Amino acid sequence: MVQNKTLKKTNSKQMKRFFFLMAAALLTAHAYAQDIYSCRNVHLSFFSSAPLEDIEAKTDKGVSAINLKTGAVYFKVPVNTFQFKKKLMQEHFNENYLETEKYPYAEFKGKLANPAALSGDGTYDVTVEGTLTLHGVDKAYREKGTITIQNGQLTSSSKFKVRLVDHKIKIPRLVIKNIAEVVDVTVQATYSLATQK
Amino acid sequence: MKTICLLLISCGLYLAGQAQDLSKMFEDSTAGHQPVIGTFKSTRIIMGHSNETLKKHELDFRVAHRFGDIGGSFGGGKTAFGLDNSTDIRIAFEYGITDDLMVGISRAKGSGDLSQVFEGLAKYRVLKQTTDDQMPVSLSVFGNVTLSTMTSSIDETSASHFEEFTDRMTYVAQAIIARKFGDRLSLTLSPTYVHRNRVGYMDMNNMFALGGSGRIRLSKRLAFIAEYYYPFRSQSSKDYYKAQGIEFFNPLGAGLEIETGGHVFSVNFTNSTAILENQFIPETRASWLQGQFRWGFNISRRFSLFSKKDWKK
């Protein structure tokens, strides 16, 4: 009996410690979840201005996540969701230039230069550094953007330039006057707190 | 203690894994079944239709031309290898009503029993091949009606002697089954039905045919194309015409397809003289082996209409 009692005691001690640790683990998980913001309808558009033609395309099918604690930033968009004014242009974009059957996604993995600055509500100018994979070709980027935090909502926006040659997107000489070599890309996203799965 | 440690380690690993790679959050949002694009560059292959349709609010202006025999008794140097003659010319306006449904009207000179032909056509994309092969093939259906405006022949046995208005009309119904293999090769198989309201003696009002075609992409803008039709003409009909000194041949074409922005330009060689299915399937009487093939071209120019209006939406 005595032996049993001591056993029980250790058991309950262990259980207590276990619960405490579990609670701590859950709390960290909870705190962690508060740092990640995600968006499933990132708006992306690009604009190319060439002597003969302005080309514009947009999509709202991008996804993104930002971890405010670590500063990790992630963007991904199915390239064939970009909508053009002219459907024929869209077909050429997918088939000849971006080759979306081979390279279906464009992806950006990066980091905020100074995540600690993002404390509380406000609008912050940020710098993001990372790698953009487009047309299967990686290229390092360092771009400026804006992050606004207000009432638990986070919005981000950025404008940057992509040089087609950096991503081995070839423009035939025949249409060189229709397609610019440098394309202006605009990104806009409204995030909400990521729900822990 | 062991269990706790394990739990903690797994918890930690889980968190660390997530912190490192935010991309994991979106693994469920992959694009799914994506339709294969650009099985063919144009709505036509050489003679017949491909599975492609025009997109919504696109207008396609098409001109097709078939010249005279390159060799044989009508060809050679004296006709500049057929350049002096045109066996058929077709001018068409075709239009995409939705991304999958197109309609068109055309006028063809016509080559065969009937000439001076108006055509109305429609094509609908029923199935689209997907990149993950959930749907292995594309399927489109095509149909047309033609009306000849030529003067009725006074010869009552002639196919162009019209007793009734409907004698001037012919129809084609076709299913186009297509598959793109990788990004270079596309193949089609097209079961086809041709109905001509009025035909000559021992000719066939109803005829089935099987078409087959292939496209090999040589570069981004250049492709090799070939097309063949096998018409199922009855033996008795063949025998009758052979006795009259008329032999029918199966249409075969080969060519190059060049894409330059909004234009698709196909330069081809065919034995068939006619451009419309209604004629080249049942009425091809020219033979490759006797030099009775010709060069021809199809030009397609696509325009996007209402693009600004559609864009606003």
Please tell me about this protein's structure:
The complex is a heterodimer of chains A (197) and B (313). Chain A is built from two helices and nine strands, in the order H-E-E-E-E-H-E-E-E-E-E. Chain A is of the alpha+beta class and 197 residues long. Chain A has two domains: 1-33; 36-193, Lipid/polyisoprenoid-binding, YceI-like (Lipocalin, Beta Barrel). Chain A has an eight-stranded antiparallel beta barrel with strand order 1-2-3-5-6-7-8-9. In chain A, strand 1 and strand 2 form a beta hairpin. The longest helix of chain A has 32 residues, at 2-33. Chain A is elongated, with a radius of gyration of 24 Å. The two termini of chain A are 45 Å apart. The model of chain A has no long low-confidence stretch (mean pLDDT 84). Chain B has 313 residues and is mainly beta. Chain B has one domain (42-308): monomeric porin ompg (Porin), CATH 2.40.160.40. Chain B has helices spanning 2-20, 235-243, 277-283, 307-312; strands at 58-67, 86-96, 101-108, 117-127, 138-148, 169-181, 185-196, 206-217, 222-231, 252-260, 263-270, 294-304. Chain B is built from four helices and twelve strands. Residues 15-19 of chain B have low confidence and may be disordered. Chain B is elongated and about 100 Å long. Helix content of chain B is 13%, strand content 40%. In chain B, strand 10 and strand 11 (263-270) form a beta hairpin. Chains A and B meet through helix 1, strand 1, strand 2, strand 3 and helix 2 of A and helix 1 and helix 4 of B.
